[in-house]
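Section 3.1: Structural characterization of target chains.
Under the original work plan, the team committed to producing a structural model for every single-chain target entering the pipeline before any wet-lab resources were allocated. The record below documents one such target. The sequence was received from the expression subgroup and is listed exactly as submitted; it comprises 192 residues.
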Amino acid sequence: MKEKEEREREMEQPESMLTILGYRNPILKKTSSKINFVDDEMKKLIEDMSYTMLAKKGIGLAAAQVGLNKRFFVFVSDFEAFDSGEEIEINVAINPQILSREGEIIEYEGCLSYPDHVAQVKRAIKTKTRYYDINMNKIEEEYTGLAARVFQHELDHLDGILFIDRMEADSLKHVDELKKDEEDEEQVTEPI
């Protein structure tokens, strides 16, 4: 009985902020290990990762980015909730796979492990995916646009690949530089 009460108290504690590894950390270059089961410790970790991701204004966070060699990530797939003020639904993808990819697009993307920087990366526009949720239920889902990009980016982390490994040549920019470029473009295209 005492153990059950202790576990319940632990589960009620607020989420903890985790440290996100920087892009030079060698842990980020390792391939993550498959997960066979989800226990209470992992569920707590998923909560902490979700909290950390949102606190850092991210839309995806892989276990490797917090120093764990485990094959899962948390991510957001419905981005309208950010603007609407609705509760943001966090997905967890355990042992994720991409079954198929369609189309290609080059767009800027960033990474919590390389803060304040973005680079142009070529990604599939649409992905068909398979993964397991927090209850180890098999999920097959198609993602398009930004959700497909996030899924591909986070899956890369599990394979030891960073977005800067895939970036288009000379496209890495500080976000302030990108904002300035966008402002300059707006001034040129605004009617006189």
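The helical segments are 2-12, 40-55, 80-84, 145-158, 163-166, 175-189.
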